[in-house]
Design brief:
The chain has about 350 residues and is an alpha/beta fold. Helices cover about 35% and strands about 20% of the residues. It contains eleven helices and 13 strands. The strands form two sheets. A seven-stranded parallel beta sheet has the order 3-2-1-4-5-6-7, with helices on both faces. Helix 6 packs across helix 9. The longest helix is centred in the C-terminal third of the chain and has 18 residues. The radius of gyration is 20 Å and the shape is elongated. The protein starts with a strand and ends with a helix.
C-alpha cells in the first residue's frame, strides 16, 4: 500500500513517536509510507537541514519525510490510505481527492479538552473519516459523544528501550514524576500528594524529568532535563514508584514505560490508563482529581513493600505481554487495508 500520515511536527513527543514507529514499521513491511510535515516560513530550511530524513531522537526511519509549507489536499501524494493525526489535519484529509486513498483519523487524545477551541475540535470528530484510537477510553468517547465507531490500536512500549537495567542501590526510595507545564498534567496535584506523604516519610526522594526544566524552583531532589531516550530506562529503573497525577491522558506512555522498567504505578484514573492500570493488580488507581485518594495511594506503595513489589511485577508483566509492536502494526495494517 501507499500510506500517507499528516504528522504535526518531528519534535520528540509521545504522540509523534507513535506515529513515526508505525510509519517506520509499515515501511519495513514493504509499504510505501510518506510523512507529510509542515515547516512554515523561515524555519522551513532549518527543519529540512536538521531533519532531512528523520529526527535525531529517531535516527533510523524508513518512511519518507515530505516537508510542506502547510497542509493542503492538493499537496498530498497519491496513495491507498491517508491519515489525519491531529484535529488540524482533518480538514485537508477530508478534502483530499480520491487519488489519495481511503481516509482515516488516528486519534491519540480527546483534544477538545485542552487543544484548540472545543467546539471546533469536536467538529473534527464528526467528519466521516474512519477513526482509529489508541485506548478504549477514546473509543468510548467517540461512540458516546459522536456516535461514531473507532478501532482500538493501543500503542505498545518499545521493549528494546524500556526494560529494567542494573542501577546502584543506595537505599533511597525514589518517586518519579513527569514535569510538564500543561495544567492537566497535574504537576501541582502530584507535588501536593508527595508533600503529604513525605511529611510522614522524610526519607522519600522526589525525582523529576521532562523535556524542559521547571521555570521556577520546585521540590525535586533531582531533575533530568531532556534525557536521551536510551537513558530513560536507567531513570525508570532507579525509581521504584512512578507517580502519574494527569487528569486526562489519551493513553499515557511514560507510565507504561516506567511499568515496563519495573516501577510500581500510582495514578489518577485519567481515562487512557484503563487499558493497563488495574487497581490493586497492575497499579494503585485513584479517582480523577481526588487528591486525598492519590496521596493515600502513594502512601500505600511507600509503606507496604510487599504491595509495591507485587504491583511492580504484575504491571511489568502486563504491559510486556498484552501489547507489542508487531501485533499493533499488524492490526493497523489490516485496518488501513480494509475496504
Amino acid at each position: 500500500m501507499k500510506i500517507t500520515f499528516l504528522c504535526p511536527h518531528l519534535r520528540i513527543a509521545g504522540g509523534v513517536r507513535a506515529i513515526l514507529i508505525h510509519a517506520d514499521r509499515l515501511a519495513r513491511g514493504g509499504h510505501e509510507v510518506t510523512l507529510v510535515v509542515p515547516a512554515r516560513g523561515a524555519v522551513t530550511a532549518w527543519w529540512r537541514n536538521r531533519f532531512q530524513r528523520a529526527p535525531d531522537w529517531m535516527p533510523v526511519l524508513e518512511a519518507r519525510v515530505q516537508w510542506v509549507t502547510e497542509w493542503s489536499a492538493a499537496a498530498l501524494p497519491d496513495g491507498d490510505a491517508v491519515i489525519a493525526t491531529s484535529w488540524q489535519s482533518v480538514e485537508p484529509v477530508a478534502a483530499a481527492p480520491t487519488r489519495c486513498g481511503r481516509k482515516f483519523y488516528f486519534i491519540q487524545h480527546y483534544e477538545s479538552l485542552y487543544h484548540g477551541e472545543a467546539a471546533r475540535v469536536d467538529a473534527t470528530y464528526r467528519v466521516p473519516l474512519r477513526k482509529i484510537v489508541i485506548s478504549t477510553w477514546l473509543a468510548d468517547i467517540m461512540a458516546e459523544r459522536f456516535d461514531t465507531p473507532a478501532a482500538v490500536v493501543v500503542t505498545p512500549v518499545d521493549g528494546a528501550l524500556f526494560r529494567p537495567v542494573p542501577v546502584e542501590d543506595d537505599g533511597r526510595l525514589r518517586v518519579l514524576m513527569l514535569f510538564h507545564e500543561y495544567p492537566w498534567k497535574g504537576v501541582a496535584d502530584g507535588l501536593e500528594a508527595f508533600a503529604r506523604v513525605r511529611a510522614r516519610h522524610p526519607e522519600l526522594t522526589l525525582v523529576g524529568f521532562g523535556v524542559k526544566a521547571p521555570p521556577r524552583k520546585l521540590p525535586f531532589a533531582e531533575f533530568h532535563e531532556n534525557l536521551a531516550q536510551e537513558r530513560l530506562a536507567w531513570l525508570y529503573s532507579r525509581c521504584p514508584i512512578y507517580l502519574c497525577p494527569s487528569w486526562d491522558e489519551g493513553l499515557g506512555m511514560p507510565a507504561m514505560e516506567a511499568m515496563a522498567c519495573g516501577a510500581a504505578l500510582c495514578t489518577y484514573d485519567n481515562g487512557g490508563c484503563r487499558d493497563y492500570a488495574i487497581d490493586g493488580r497492575t497499579a494503585v488507581v485513584s479517582p480523577r482529581r481526588d487528591l486525598d485518594a492519590l496521596a493515600w495511594g502513594l502512601t500505600r506503595l511507600v509503606e507496604d513493600e510487599e504491595l509495591r513489589t507485587r504491583i511492580a511485577r504484575q504491571g511489568q508483566n502486563f504491559v510486556g505481554t498484552q501489547f507489542d509492536w508487531e501485533r499493533a502494526t499488524a492490526r493497523l495494517e489490516s485496518i488501513l487495508a480494509a475496504r
